């Protein structure tokens, strides 16, 4: 018999996450002594092979970091390189970028809510098994995902790795009629998204809060997606151009993803922070579009939500917001005069950040005068959240040592999925292992 | 749930190709009724032991442990299908094949010694017998459904290897090369996507890899005429199917990158 106070919980090969990873928790004498989110997604070395490429290439190349959020990579890369070249893309082109980004939020959030996360709350191993009992629910999720995909394809040519985005804008501007044709699908998606908020708000959530500093892009007046300035719930704010001074990454032996901490020029010790739906909601919740704001109120979210298990509710609110925004942008769309503004290369360093479905995605490029990429830095949301996930697990397990290994392991897996971890992104991740000794 | 068993496996990749399976809204639930999803960690934590009737393999071989895992998957699979540019050609990460992987690791990680990475990124067929390949970065959903439908019906799948040009003609898109508007890899790239890029006034960038008998060298003058020169003429082939295009004579020029 194992001594009750010493336990080891582990999951080798976490399911329903994007990519490969696991978890290991060690409990000794009734105390949690070690928590590791193990990421063994093989490294692909994007930042290395970006060196020597032309300045027009990183958007399409970095899209391949992640098949779930390629638009986030494309637009963070575009913004960084445009910053290096001194070009601002505004007006109708910026609106069209926001529209395709809404498509990615809709598709990604629908995927995570319905196929990856909801089965945890309902006691099913996955959406296929959930569909056997509640086909109408899974169909609603897939319909929402399809609405996101249709939007991605209409603006971008295809849903995964869209082809129509480029530095300065687009290759071809969609006709008004092409986008107007999406309206009936988006109207239905709006009703489905509102029903989703109501549905997930009724789930049972463990009593658990965290105190991490929350980081999101903020753009006063609207819910930041494709642009904005980094800000935290503790009042810190910095321009994207200061990312190197604020984002400190370290490498741990158990992961091919780097761990990020939030530092600052004020000499403060680098600290834990998290990014993603809870952070965005805390910092921009007052600027949600009206129906999403009403749905958040009806779901009882309040001004700030610090329970990562309720991230599914915030994600559903954001799903609603993205559909609402998309409907507005489609309604107001008038094709700009030119599909793209020129982005001639020049020597310099550029910074870009956008809100990927999982949180802020930072890019930095240093260019030679002819546009050749000298070096690149990519800080994806899952790398930023990894230390927070481990902290959540440590505190979550410590408060529930009376549960048996099976229950506790399952709850830990769920705690990880709260962050919608994208392991493919983090490595540029999960095996849950619990050891009680 | 009767019917043949389906397993989905992942190696070095972005997950975008297996996502195509989850994108089949109308078809996914119908498919789930005809096949037994036995291993698909991204969709369900329920896992069945092999053997499997159909295995879909995404991603390329990049770590020492990949080799054993792939051989074991082959051993337990009746039909093995490599899906996407990573699994069929090594993917964008095969750019390491042209460089020094230890230098790459040092450029990306403060402690490269924590990593286990092979010097090359290689396709599935480089290590085990592959029954079918779906090209593309990402794969085309229609091609995936065609393949699964054919396997379930016991017929040969229709997976053309002719060039994108035929799909452009079928779509009624004006040729970008003829009008000199854009350099386009359509004439040497395998069909399957439905010729999306030219319809968006963008030259094909070869994400489905080389077409059968691709005359890569013969395309160079047309690419030059459309404005591609020097390093760009090399780099254009050095993307998502770098290794496959190199084997067809593209992007293998020795000028500096």
State the separation between the terminal residues of chain A, measured CA to CA.
11 Å
Number of strands of chain B: 5
> What would the principal axes of the Cα set say about the shape of chain A?
globular
Structural class of chain B: alpha/beta
The CATH first-level class of the largest domain in chain B comes to Alpha Beta
Report the largest inter-chain contact: A-B, 68 and 64 residues
Provide the CATH architecture of the largest domain in chain B. Answer: 3-Layer(aba) Sandwich
Radius of gyration of chain A: 21 Å
The named CATH superfamily of the largest domain in chain B:
NADH:ubiquinone oxidoreductase-like, 20kDa subunit
Radius of gyration of chain B: 19 Å
- Indicate the overall shape of chain B: globular
Strand content of chain A: 15-25%
Number of helices of chain A: 15
How many distinct folded domains of chain B?
2
**Strand coverage percent of chain B:** 5-15%
* Mean pLDDT over the full residue set of chain A: 90
